[in-house]
Amino acid sequence: MHRSTNYVIALIVAVVALCSFAVAENKERPSVQTPQTFKELGNWKPSEPGDQLSKGKWWERFNDPQLNRLEESLAISNQNIAAAIANVEASRAIVRQSRSQYFPLVTAGASFTRSRQPIGPSGATASTYSGTLDASWEPDVFGRVRSAVKAGRYGVQVSLADLENVRLSAQADLANDYFLMRVQDSLQQILDTTVSAYQDALDVARARYAAGLDSDESVAQAETQLETTRAQAVNAGVLRAQYEHAIAVLIGQPASSFAVAPQVITLNPAAVPVGVPSELLERRPDIAAEERAVMQANAQVGLSKKAFFPTLLLTASGGFQGNSISDWFNWPDRVWSIGTSLTQTIFDGGSRRATVQQAQAVYEGTVANYRQTVLTAFQQVEDNLAAVRILSDVIREQDSGVESARRTLGEADVRYRSGIDPYLNVITAQTALLNAQEAALTFRQQQITASVNLIKALGGGWDESQLH
Questions:
Q1: Please, what is the Cα angle at 112 between 109 and 114, to 5 degrees?
Q2: Nearest CA to 366 among 459, 289, 285?
Q3: How many CB atoms lie within 10 A of CB 376?
Q4: Percent helix, strand, coil in the chain (nearest 5)?
Q5: Which residue has better confidence, 332 or 335?
Q6: Which residue in 366, 426, 23 sits closest to 200, CA to CA?
Q7: Which of 47, 222, 333, 418 could form a disulfide with 322 if both were Cys (CB 3.0 to 4.6 A apart)?
Q8: Is residue 29 within 8 Å of residue 154, measured between CB atoms?
């Protein structure tokens, strides 16, 4: 190679290396307003124990072995989680694909050509055999590959955070469906007990009617009350079956072959240490995903700006060519070439500038999404803190109401049996007691749902360090 050629190549490399520092991306986390504390913590009364939230298996705080077994099954068989895992692997493959551009592209080829030339009266026919090895390489002097790899790595972290968000959502959905199913078991018990009490009341009304102490109207009222409540008891099985089927889907099993035995449990919220709002930026996978999406979009902005710089390409080719394959081993039949090129787009009608503007707009959009996700996270924590706290007071008052309704029914029954009051008073008291019991159960359902949602809003047992 001539000395002048070496000088030209060295000059090209030096110029492009200096230009490669012209584009730099901002790596800082977008600013977001973070309150010093949660407003609802002022009246928050955390349950004991008050240790830190369990890492990973947060559902164990509810102390329910059946729920624990179901959550373990979900981690293995949930199809949404499996799809999210596949997305992570696809993102990792994109990084490997981008990283491969650091290395030369080498290809090998062989060809055979049979041709005839019009030489002499009858022409001449010849065969040509050739084998070549070609290599081309675009040195990453402008950082195109580095930017693509960086964007891909952030994409992997987005996929990992999305996976954890899908996992956490599925875990919370399973816990909520499980407790809703148990609520239906408790409701079934209330209704079955009520039906039994109404049957006893009907027997009393019939006996009094047979003795001439009451009218058939009281019997008809008692029968109506009993059959209506009996229908409610049967109907309670519909929702219970639906929750059971939903659990089956979450753990990746056919609803037709899955069953959970009915069981009445105590619906108590889990002990949840809340912490401070700033911890949400590290404990919620959806926030982590949005933050990495911002960084990925920022890397894409830098990548789009690299289009304003030249493209340097180094090529080399070598091989053998002859009239027979045996000629490939003759040194005079060797062929080779080596070269370099530097290309620069002079005019593109504003295409590159528009691409940069598009990438910048996408970046601004991801920043807005990140900030909105953070704001929504604060709201969700505040909402569920308020729900758990307020419902504790509501449940206490409602339990007192249930006891009052039960006492009222007892007095109404005594007065009816004594012939002082009509049976309508008994029906009114029975309805009031059933309504009070159902309301108390509904409030407990709302509180334990809020407890699960609070844990989800706090990020479960996840933290940002799992992305590294």
A1: 160
A2: 289
A3: 14
A4: 70, 10, 20
A5: 335
A6: 426
A7: 333
A8: no
Domains in the chain, ordered, with CATH? 22-102+142-309+349-467 (1.20.1600.10), 104-139+310-343 (2.20.200.10)
Question: What is the identity of the amino acid at 96?
Answer: R
CA distance 384 to 199: 41
DSSP lists the bridge partners of residue 340 as 314
Cβ proximity of 162 and 292 under 8 Å: no
Residue 330's pLDDT is 63
Residue showing tokens 């999406």: 293
pLDDT of residue 291: 92
Contacts (Cβ under 8 Å, ≥6 apart) of 153: 95
pTM of the model: 0.84
Residue whose token pair is 């504790």: 392
Q: Nearest Cα to 275, choosing from 32, 92, 34?
A: 34
The number of residues making up the chain comes to 468
Residues 29 and 270 sit within 8 Å (Cβ to Cβ): no
278, two tokens: 């700033």
| 258 contacts 247 by C-beta, under 8 angstroms | yes
Rounded Cα distance between 111 and 236, Å, is 78
Whether the per-residue pLDDT at 5 is higher than 60: the answer is no
Separation between Cα atoms, residue 412 and residue 402, nearest integer Å:
15
Which tokens go with 8?
A: 């030209």
Q: What is residue 383's predicted lDDT score, i.e. its pLDDT? A: 94
* Residue 191 near residue 228, CB atoms below 8 Å: no
CA–CA distance, 276 with 264 (Å, rounded to integer) = 36
Please give the Cα distance from 289 to 297 (Å, whole number): 12
Distance, C-alpha 146 to centroid of its chain: 29
Burial string for 111-141 (b: 16+ CB within 10 Å, else e) reads eeeeeeeeeeeeeeeeeebbbbebeebbebb
